[in-house]
Amino acid sequence: MDSWDTEIAARASREPAVCAAFASLTASVTEGPGPDKVVDTLSHECARLLPIDSTEVFLPGLKLQRHPAVAEEGPVLESFETGTDVAVHDLSAAVSRWPGYVARMAGQGYAAVSVFPLRAMDETVGSIAFLSAETVVLSVEDRRLGRALADVATLCLLQQRELRHYRTLSQQLQTALDSRVVIEQAKGVLAERAAIDVGTAFQRMRSFARSSNRKLSEVARGVVDGTVDSRNLLRPRTVDHRRKNDGQSPGRAVGHRNR
User: Which residues contact 196 (CB under 8 A, 6 or more apart)?
Assistant: First the structure.
């Protein structure tokens, strides 16, 4: 079997694993409330399919439990800021460029790195570094696969962000609806107890909430479940009208002119 046949056979055997990787990334969107599952899947699949030893993912602005952001300098940060690929085949030659990063990688046993931005359209959400213990250069095919995996992971992270946004919005709307329902119930309860119209009942509740520094929905819920004494709530609010001095309104200055 010549080299061309060998390459074709290698690609054919690799194809099912690549398809499985993309499927795993897609499924990871709904497998956890945060981005950790997506990042875990991306790191695992890249390490399984590419000739690398480890990965490092940088996602500023996102709270990751298992992937802390440590990129104060280096190609990971540069790729994120520029939105371009960065490849360093021999990290020891870049010590003057990123002294802290090179020292940290050398301490972990890595000698080369290839970085791709996690970018979709005009937004870059982070970057991923492919780390190798030897000074190596990824092939064109490996770089293409790494780029594709990074792109799919980026779309997964953005989709997950949208899901979190809509879930939060849904919860807020549900809370507002629940509060409205309770307030309407409380208005009816007060109106029946005091033989007043629902508009007056609402005004009494609102006045009581303000004077007691409580939320209107909290007061309404207390009316419905009986934890708020309706007698105190229905008691008319009296205003302390202080005697006006010299027939003047409070706060109005009295002027005297010398003749």
Answer: 190, 204
Residue 228 contacts residue 222 (beta carbons within 8 Å): yes
58 is written with which tokens? Answer: 């940088």
State pTM to two decimals. Answer: 0.62
Measured between alpha carbons, how far is 95 from 231 in angstroms, rounded to an integer? 77
Q: Identify the three-state secondary structure at position 20.
A: helix
Domain 167-237: assigned CATH number: 1.10.10.10
Distances (CA, A) of 141 to 51, 166, 170: 11, 38, 43
CA distance 85 to 116: 5
Higher pLDDT, 88 or 194: 88
Average pLDDT, the chain: 79
In which residue are the tokens 């398809």 written?
Answer: 19
pLDDT in tens, 67-84: 655 657 889 899 999 999
Residues written for the chain: 259
SS3 call for 256: coil
For the chain, state the CA radius of gyration. Answer: 33
> Domain ranges in the chain?
167-237
CA 155/CA 153 separation, integer angstroms: 5
Give the strand order in the sheet containing 86-88: 54-58, 123-132, 112-120, 86-88
Q: In the chain, where does DSSP find H-type helix?
A: 3-27, 36-49, 75-82, 99-107, 140-194, 198-211, 216-225, 230-234
